[in-house]
Amino acid sequence: MRYDGMTPAEVYDQEVVTNIFSEWTPQLVATGAPAAGERVLDLACGSGSVARAIAAAVGPSGAIVGADPNPGMLAVARARGVEGDTPVEWVEAPAQRLPLPDDSFDLVLCQQGLQFVPEKEAAAAEIARVLRPGGRLALSVWSGLDANPVQRAYNESLLAHAGAAIFTAPFSFGDPVALRILLEGNGLADVTIVEETRHARFDSVRHFTEVHVVGAAAVIPELAALSDADRDRIIDVSTVDLTTIADPYLGDGEFRVPMSSLVATATKPA
């Protein structure tokens, strides 16, 4: 396998960040509009891609905190750091229990993390608590599997061959009504939610399945628990399954996968 010797978090940073989030991260950063001198929380920061993307905008007069419960992801984030002189701190903590002061951030960004949090009410309350009055939130969560047909087909393949609907979790909070209720119910205002579609790009169908089986093991426990042999088997059989639906998404030497996401913004009342 092409990822021999790499941890799942390293594969995630190399492949998921590059092939899936390359169109999404700049959009989320633009939505949040970080400014020089601001203090920004990258919540559920993973390997730190959002923090790296905002460092230049925040600059040395600002500061970034990246918080994530996964020590493997944080190890990659620390190793990569951010460019320039922006102060950055990496904190091992879940979104629902942040060891951070009240009213301490101008902006909270959260890219595709909230859906994995088991205590979403607590996480939303923590976001409101750590934002200063007038502070801003910009977050994204994938829309449901019905809005993401390639991922739906892949999830069905995993259910057939691995005995579990492993990719339910990433697409489990794609209801804009539920998201609005969650944010407004925990003290945030001016909530806007839009659904957008962008594309993930892979060299081939097999590249897609490799990235999702190996890289996603960094955030999906069912994949992390698989043996190397089981991962190889699932990659093989899922590649065959997805090839049957791949034609509309193949072109110019790429497997180009449309992905739909909800993008939400809110503010903490002054």
Could you tell me the mean pLDDT? 95
Structural class: alpha/beta
What string gives the helices and strands in order?
Answer: HHEHEHEEHEHHEHHHEE
- Proper CATH architecture: 3-Layer(aba) Sandwich
**Could you give me the name of the CATH homologous superfamily?**
Vaccinia Virus protein VP39
Low-confidence stretches: none
Overall, the morphology is: globular
The major β-sheet equals: 8 strands, mixed
What Rg is obtained from the alpha carbons, in whole angstroms?
A: 18 Å
Instruction: Please report the total strand number as a whole number.
Output: 8
Short recap of the structure:
The protein is α/β, with parallel strands linked by helices and 270 residues long. Helices cover 40% and strands 24% of the residues.
Looking at this protein, list some descriptive labels.
270 residues; single chain; 8 strands; alpha/beta; Rossmann fold; 8-stranded mixed β-sheet
Q: Can you offer a commentary on this structure?
A:
It is a single chain. The chain is of the alpha/beta class and 270 residues long. It has a single domain (8-267), classed as 3-Layer(aba) Sandwich (Rossmann fold). The protein contains ten helices and eight strands. It has helices at 8-20, 24-32, 49-58, 71-80, 120-130, 149-162, 176-185, 205-214, 221-224, 228-243; strands spanning 39-43, 63-68, 88-92, 105-111, 131-142, 189-202, 250-251, 254-267. Strands 1, 2, 3, 4, 5, 6, 7 and 8 form an eight-stranded mixed beta sheet that branches. The longest helix has 16 residues, at 228-243. It is globular, with a radius of gyration of 18 Å.
